[in-house]
């Protein structure tokens, strides 16, 4: 070990310094042949290299001529120094020889824990360590009064059987830990139990409520048929399909049969009431037929125009014209969708004879308009008063030539019976094939000749377009 590396209060004299390490000598020795002095350790290291000469004057050395310099050592030990922990805060200073005694009590000296916990720390922190941090300190449990080392005490705190704890299920109960397992198993109101009917888990304090609703809970048949253990969720199926004492309606209930009987008696009732059931079904079919007719009419009205303009496309014109020419019985009249003159106005319909009608038959297109029974007829002025315009639209490309529509207009005469208020059901004879003039409505039997239709694009893509517009005049009320 080289010389003393202490903080001396005064700079040591040169004769106290080792020539080899340049520090105040530790355990100085003197070479008697030349009088030079060195640290014992420094000289030993120098000689261990195989050079047996004095480091100062290079004269030969003899181990027998080297001896401890006790007097010089006492002088060095008497030099005043500061504590080696002065930079940490220790203010001690005294003779060098008193340092070891001071270090045995210095608050800033590093010491090992006496409990052999392997921790090294400043002496001034030792007491706090022994009381709070040492893993091998002795501690007494506040609950069972047993002593444990620090680590064992921490483990024991989470498992002490005498510690008072709350139930982990948060039922609110408090007890010593050794009773907790029994409480959780058989006493806790929040413990989980399986329902013995559906096997789902529920809290103990809610399982009774669950069993009042459990789908697998066994219940009795309300008809007291004697079937045991019917699951609650299967009860309705049992009553409807399996129960022999359940009262059921006749299968023809929707048709109007109000008979009720137990399920086994249903076949007998069906056999006895065959004639009445057939009558009920006929009545149901008639009612449904009327409902369908009304629905068709309403759909027709909703899909039709309500602004007084009808644009009617007649597709497959050539086939329809040929059929009209070859028809020998019935009417060849085609009917447009119904439309309204205006919102909440007159309900109208256009019809066409592709091969003509009356004076135009065989070579003309005939067009008529009639008034149909409507929803709002009771609120309207009669006879029908508005001007009507028919148009056969020219389908020529406007970029190539100006379209030349065929247009005819008329204003109804108040005396014409065609425009009086129609009676409900009066139009049925039209579709049945009647050609009475009062049922045809009013129009033009010679609207346009077949020959003229072929001169321009009135027929295009095997279809024609007929437009009917109603000129609704807004009346000013004074």
Automatic annotation (TrEMBL):
Chain ranges of the RING-type domain: 18-58
Zinc finger (TRAF-type): 101-154, 156-208, 210-261
Keywords noted in UniProt: Cytoplasm, Metal-binding, Repeat, Zinc, Zinc-finger
Chain ranges of the MATH domain: 307-470
Top-level division of the source organism's lineage: Eukaryota
UniProt cross-references to InterPro entries, sorted A to Z: MATH/TRAF_dom, TNF_rcpt-assoc_TRAF_met, TRAF-like, TRAF1-6_MATH_dom, TRAF4_MATH, Ubox_domain, Znf_C3HC4_RING-type, Znf_RING
Domain TRAF-type: 101-154, 156-208, 210-261
GO cellular component, one term: cytoplasm
Listed name of the protein: TNF receptor-associated factor
């Amino acid at each position: 070990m080289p010389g003393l590396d202490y903080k001396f209060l005064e700079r040591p004299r040169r004769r106290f310094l080792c020539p080899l390490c340049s520090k105040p000598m530790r355990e100085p020795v003197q070479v008697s042949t030349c009088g030079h002095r060195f640290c014992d350790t420094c000289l030993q290291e120098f000689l261990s290299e195989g050079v047996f000469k004095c480091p100062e004057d290079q004269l030969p050395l003899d181990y027998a001529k080297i001896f401890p310099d006790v007097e010089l050592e006492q002088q060095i030990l008497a030099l005043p120094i500061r504590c080696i922990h002065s930079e940490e805060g220790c203010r001690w200073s005294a003779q060098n020889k008193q340092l070891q005694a001071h270090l045995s009590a210095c608050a800033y000296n590093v010491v090992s824990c006496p409990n052999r916990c392997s921790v090294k720390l400043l002496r001034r922190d030792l007491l706090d360590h022994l009381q709070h941090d040492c893993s091998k300190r002795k501690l007494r449990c506040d609950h069972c009064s047993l002593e444990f080392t620090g680590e064992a005490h921490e483990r024991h705190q989470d498992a002490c059987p005498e510690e008072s704890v709350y139930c982990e299920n948060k039922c609110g109960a408090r007890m010593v830990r050794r009773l907790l397992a029994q409480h959780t198993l058989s006493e806790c109101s929040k413990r989980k139990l399986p329902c013995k009917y559906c096997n789902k888990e529920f809290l103990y304090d809610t399982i009774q409520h669950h069993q009042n609703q459990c789908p697998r809970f066994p219940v009795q048949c309300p008809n007291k048929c004697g079937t045991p253990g019917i699951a609650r969720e299967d009860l309705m199926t049992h009553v409807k399909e399996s129960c022999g004492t359940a009262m059921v309606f006749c299968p023809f209930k929707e048709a109007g049969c109000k008979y009720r009987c137990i399920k086994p008696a249903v076949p007998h009732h069906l056999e006895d009431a065959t004639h009445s059931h057939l009558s009920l079904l006929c009545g149901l079919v008639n009612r449904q037929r009327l409902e369908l007719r009304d629905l068709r009419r309403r759909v027709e009205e909703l899909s039709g125009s309500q602004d007084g303009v009808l644009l009617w496309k007649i597709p497959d014109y050539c086939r329809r014209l040929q059929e009209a020419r070859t028809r020998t019985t019935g009417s060849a009249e085609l009917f447009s969708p119904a439309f309204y003159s205006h919102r909440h106005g007159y309900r109208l319909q256009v019809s066409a004879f592709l091969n003509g009608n009356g004076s135009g038959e065989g070579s003309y297109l005939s067009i008529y308009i009639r008034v149909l029974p409507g929803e709002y007829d009771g609120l309207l002025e009669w006879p029908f008063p508005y001007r009507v315009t028919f148009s056969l639209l020219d389908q020529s490309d406007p970029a190539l030539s100006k379209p030349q529509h065929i247009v005819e207009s008329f204003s109804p005469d108040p005396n014409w019976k065609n425009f009086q208020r129609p009676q409900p059901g009066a139009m049925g004879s039209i579709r049945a094939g009647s050609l009475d003039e009062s049922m045809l409505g009013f129009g033009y039997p010679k609207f346009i000749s077949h020959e003229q239709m072929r001169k321009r694009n009135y027929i295009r893509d095997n279809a024609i377009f007929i437009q009917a517009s109603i000129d609704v005049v807004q009346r000013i009320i004074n």
